[in-house]
Amino acid sequence: MTDRTNPDLEAGTEALAALRRLSRDIGRDRALTQAAGGNTSLKQDGILWVKASGTWLAEAETSDIFVPVRIAPLLDALHAGDPRAEKATDFVASDLTASALRPSIETAVHAAMPQPVVLHVHCVNTIAHVVTEGGEAQAAQRLTDAGFEGRFACISYCRPGVPLARQVARIASGRTDIVILGNHGLIVAGTGVADAAERLDAVVAALEIPPRPTAEAFDTQPLAELSAGSPYRLPADPGAHHLARDPDMLRVALAGPLYPDHVIFLGETIGTVAPDAGAMADYLRIWDAPPGAAPSLLLVPGVGILVNERVTAGGEALVGCLADVAARIPPDAVLVPLSADDVHQLTHWEAETYRQTLDRPGAPAPRPGAA
Ligand SMILES: [Zn+2]
Question: Ligand 1 centre and the CA of 208: distance in Å?
Fold first, then answer.
């Protein structure tokens, strides 16, 4: 219960309640976050209240998704190159929480920003800029034109977690409250929840790219027939079919993985198949051996898309994200996908393996520090 005799504590409790509400709103906006992506935090009294790894911002008001982490020892570990900064579990203020969840993989990033409130989002408008050649400069120009000159920084892609936190620590200052992350997304900070929320809206408006209009309704029956008896099914989001129906969106989808959560939730490879039963049989013979090995996402150019039956709600959200990003990339843009080494680092990173475990339906609740 809130201690009404202590005004500081009361203000802190209200700030956390406001952060929960804002986090829920951000989590419900598919243009800002998808699945367990994105994270938010609040600093007060030496404690960083940060979203737990694998939880969804959309559930910020209905479940306990924030974990308290001691900022000073975490920053000491980050600056000293101490590997404990990566998981940050050793710095959880366990006296302040009963939660067994692990702090976000971006906890050190949040700690490295000095502002009291930090919002990290996988904004599709930002991503549509920063996965293309010259995209970071283009986003920077948009922010300058919107009056944010001197308030933002751009960081080229590096692996989320400690490598990104180190880069953020290099540019962090009280004035830098916007950070554009190459092949990743956006960080916006503020002195309070309302201040950060207002800035996030203004930044997203400055970076907005109207999505390409998509064609009218079409028949998904050929896809249903093609997938019958296969490990594939229709996607949850009918709008995602345009990834295969629109040649410019298809080009984006097949360029290679463009940002980390795509790799984590949908894997490195996207399959393609011609719309006939023989081609599908050949595809499955090559790709689905052993059974279950076929790519999460299968594009049928000119027809639509199929998702593997193992794809979770998280994976479905990332299918929608790819469609939202692809619809915002101009046909003449040169795409810059993640390198093979970038992908390897993501897929061999224990913290991401843990997050995938939480994404699996029916997965047991994790124990603190569990692998
Ligand atoms: Zn991120």
Answer: 19
